[in-house]
Design goal:
With 95 residues, this protein is an alpha+beta fold. It has one domain (2-80). 23% of the residues lie in helices and 26% in strands. Strand 5 and strand 6 (75-80) form a beta hairpin.
């Protein structure tokens, strides 16, 4: 439990140091959604983030959390729009 608390406290420090922004939280300040759940123990947490350099956050059109198959984590989608963007089809970039 102590290790989890240390990681949770480190995220804002890391964001401040590297000028990163949690774009999902920025776009959804009052929503309570979780990216991980364990149904057996009735536990859910927000473990996954999209941390984006603050300067790039202005080209983020929207972010969403979506259910994923074959995993206990939800996906966080991120849609970017820049001036030089050329649409290439209905695909997802994953890593």
């Amino acid at each position: 439990m102590k290790r989890k608390n240390n990681v949770i406290r480190a995220i804002p420090k890391l964001c401040g140091l590297l000028k990163l922004q949690d774009v999902w939280r920025y776009q959804h300040p009052d929503e309570s959604q979780f990216t991980w759940c364990n149904k057996a123990f009735k536990v859910q947490c927000r473990l996954d983030y999209w941390l984006v350099y603050e300067e790039l956050s202005r080209i983020v059109l929207n972010t969403e959390m979506k259910s994923s198959t074959l995993t206990d984590h939800s996906a966080i989608t991120l849609k970017l729009q820049s001036k030089g963007y050329a649409q290439r089809g209905p695909r997802f970039w994953k890593f």
